[in-house]
Amino acid sequence: MKPFTPAPVKPVVSADGLKAFDIRVGTISGVADVPSSDRLVRLTVDFGDHRRQIVAGIKSERADPTEIRGKQALFVLNLDHANLVVTAWDGARMVGISRSLTDFVYATYLSDLAVRKSYQRTGIGRELVRLTQEAAPRATLILLAAPAAEKYYPHIGFEHHPQAWILRGGIS
Fold it and tell me: How far apart are CA 106 and CA 144, in angstroms?
């Protein structure tokens, strides 16, 4: 296990700035290994009224990541324009995000899938997609790829769909 180096402290935020965030205490009820990654574990977190799956980059911080089972921690629950968000963290640094809009039955529109460049090719993107799909298992996962990422998606199981159409904003 390599020594843990904390992220630098960010600039001070006013108390009013914090009011926008839905920060809650969650109890970590499950810790599962992400086999394709040397950094990630999948946490099941209970917030009392609901549970969430969260991917965290804590393998390198602890000899036994399961020691946090039963512990409580703070989590930010609200990000704009999404009702399904899965994030990946390496300590205090967010290294990946899957941001989607879903009805949990028919369609999940994966609008953002991003992994920090220095963490790419470690299985984080594949795990974020898997957890997104696991959260809405009956829904079809739909994604419009950024041109630079088009060749990535077939490698993680996506099929090209030629019947898709787009209507760009600003055109009347």
Answer: 17
In a domain, 4, yes or no: no
**Whole-angstrom Cα distance, residue 5 to residue 123?**
22
Domain-located, residue 12: no
Residue 50: which of 96, 84, 87 has the closest Cα?
Answer: 84
As a whole number of angstroms, the distance between CA 44 and CA 50 comes to: 11
Residue 1 pLDDT > 70, yes or no?
Answer: no
pLDDT for the residue 3: 65
Identify the CA nearest to 64 among candidates 35, 27, 33, 90. Answer: 33
Which runs of E-coded beta strand occur in the chain? 23-33, 41-46, 51-57, 72-76, 84-90, 93-102, 107-115, 140-143
CATH code: domain of residue 31: 3.40.630
**Quick check: is 7 in a domain?**
no
Encode pLDDT of 74-88 as tens digits: 877 776 556 788 888
Domain count, the chain: 1
Domain coverage including residue 38: 21-156
In a domain, 9, yes or no: no
Tens digits of per-residue pLDDT, 11-55? Answer: 777 777 777 778 889 999 999 887 766 777 888 899 999 888 877
